[in-house]
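Below is how a single chain appears once it has passed through the pipeline. First comes the sequence as given, then the structure the pipeline wrote out for it. We keep one example in the README because the format questions we get most often are answered faster by looking than by reading.
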Amino acid sequence: MMELGRASSPAGSLMELGRASSPAGSLMELGRASSPAGSLMELGRASSPAVRTIPIDSPISALNKFKQQNLPACKPVLKPSCVITSFLVLGFIFVPIGLTTLCASRTVVEIVDRYDSGCVPGAFRSNKVSFIKDTSLPKNCSRILKVRKHMKAPIYIYYQLDNYYQNHRRYVKSRSDQQLLHGLKSNNTSSCEPEEFNNGLPVVPCGLIAWSLFNDTYTFIRGTKELRINRKNIAWDSDRDSKFGKHVYPINFQNGTLIGGGKLDPHIPLSDQEDLIVWMRTAALPSFRKLYGRIEEDLEADDVIVVHLMNNYNTYSFGGKKKLVLSTSSWLGGRNDFLGVAYIFVGGSSIILSIVFLLLHMKNSRY
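Resulting structure:
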C-alpha cells in the first residue's frame, strides 16, 4: 500500500524526480562513494572489536572505587541512647581498673634519701666540685634510714640521678656495640670519640657511656649485722647474653689523664660486669633510676638502717642530684601512680559525659 502510494502520489514522483535531477544530490552521493574518510569510517565500523567491559569484582574496579571513596563501609548512625550507654559502660570498666592499679601502687613501700649535699664536708659546701675532684680527700659518708612500714623481700636498691641527660645525642652515640660483643676484633670504633684511645692504645669498652660509669658504693647495716646485697641478675638477660661478649675483657680502661667514673676489673669479662651492663642501657629522661642490687631479707617497721656509702660520683659539675632508693614491688612493678590516676580520670570523665548527655537528651528528646 505504501509503495503504491508513493508511486501514485504526485508529491512522491516530484521528490524522486528532484533527487534524480538535483546536482547537489548527485554530488553528495558521489562524495560518499569517493570519500576516503567515508570508506575508513565504514571499514572501521566493520572491523572494530566489541567494547571490553570491566568485571565488578576486578582489581581495577576496586581501585577505582577506592579512589572515588565508594568502597563499602560501616557508617553507623549513633543514637543518643547508644552514646550514653557506651560512655557509661566505659566509665564503669575504667574506674575499677584504676582503683585496683592505684591500690597496688600504694602497697609499694619506698625509702628515698638524697645524699649528694649531705655528704659534702662543711668546709666545701660552697665549692663542691673541688671536693669531689680532690682524690686525696676521703669520700666516705654515713646516712641513717628509718623503715616506716614492713618491707617484704626482695627489697630493690636503686640509685637515682636527676638532671642527668643520658639521652644527649653525642652521649648516646659514643659507644661501639660491636666492640662490646667482639672486643679488639672490631676495628670500627670511630663512634667512641673522644674516648676511643688512651696513650695511643685502644680502650675496651670505649665511649663516653662506659667512661662515665656510676661508681658510688653502698653498705647497709641493721643493728650490728651487715645486710647482704645480691648484685647478680640485675641486668636484662638479653643484654647479658647477646650484647656483651663472654670473652671480652676491659683493656686500657680509665687509664687516661681524665677519670670519668668507675673502674672495671680487667680479669672479669664484660658479660659478668652487670653494673656496667645496667649503666650502658641509657635512660630516656633526665631523672632516672638504675638497679644497684637486692636485699634478700625482710625489713620490719621502725628498723634503723645505717648506710655507709662512698660519695665518688661527680654530679656537682652540672648541678645533678643523687638519691638512694629502697623499694619493694607489687604485681604491677614499682611504685607508679600515673597508670591508676589515668584510668580513674578517663573513667570518671566518661561517667560525667554520659550524665550530661542524658540530661540533654531528656531536655531535647527527638528519638
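Residues 1-41 have pLDDT under 50 and may be disordered.

See the next section for the split statistics.
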